[in-house]
Write the structure tokens for this entry.
Amino acid sequence: MTKQYLRKVRLIVGGSNTPGVVADRDAGIDLSELHIKFSVRNTTAQVLKRAEIRIYNLNQDVANKIQNEFTRVELSAGYGDDIGLIFQGQIAQIRVGRENATDTYVDIFAQDGDAAYNFSVSNRSLAKGWTPDQLYTSLLQDLEPYGITAGHKPDFSGESASRGMACYGMTRDYLRDLAAQQGCEWSLEDGKINFVKLSSFIAGEAVVLNSATGMIGTPEMTLQGLTVRSLLNSRIKSGGQIKIDNASIASLQLNIPYAGIDVAPGTDADGAYTSRVVQHVGDTRGLEWYTSMICVAVDGTAPAVGPTIVDVPNG
């Protein structure tokens, strides 16, 4: 991303009742020219991607349609002609109100993959000798009626089960167990299910972050991971690869009595990180237009050494 000015947003709210179908621009309403605030957050863990969108001073007829008819929302943001999708999903709740004497608002709370997560049930049996890939394929079939298709998936182990398996329950629970067995996290985004290895990332071009490409301030290592902030960048997705110069990172300082230095996250020798948590926030008529991340080193086994730990009590 070379031009990071002329901020632009595209907000489409539509009435499709088909799970997994993006709001139809022809059937829906384009609200892009209004005053809009938004916050979109996603993680590679088993948590639904969610959006909170506030639209100011809507025509009453349009506000009524959003409340009573529309079921899906699509939000894109960026700069000039270079904008990208940051959220699409099902509307979970609508709230209307007045912010002050002159400004009214409609709040949209939406989640990506809401129906699949909350209603998909698995009811099947796998014969002795089933493999993780066969279980994955079966669970994917249970998600497909809700518009979910295959996304990123690493190579699973080829080990065959010594016993058969009966699946009866929420599909999300079996996905969680499968991910844990394979050393992965799983999530839903843009109508796809992604499995990401704890020491890997979703395949694709890495986003290079530095002062020239929009990075704001200094990345800081914390116990949760590397926290990074940049100008809003729709290319940054949870599970994607981020490249950061390690020399620009503020190291973690521990002032509490941890037993060993291995409790602290390490850096990657090549500056490669996976964005595990991503949040986009924006205000079309305000100052906010940022992407914040919590990242972990792709080489997750890299120990915390040198200046990363500066205060480990003796004994």
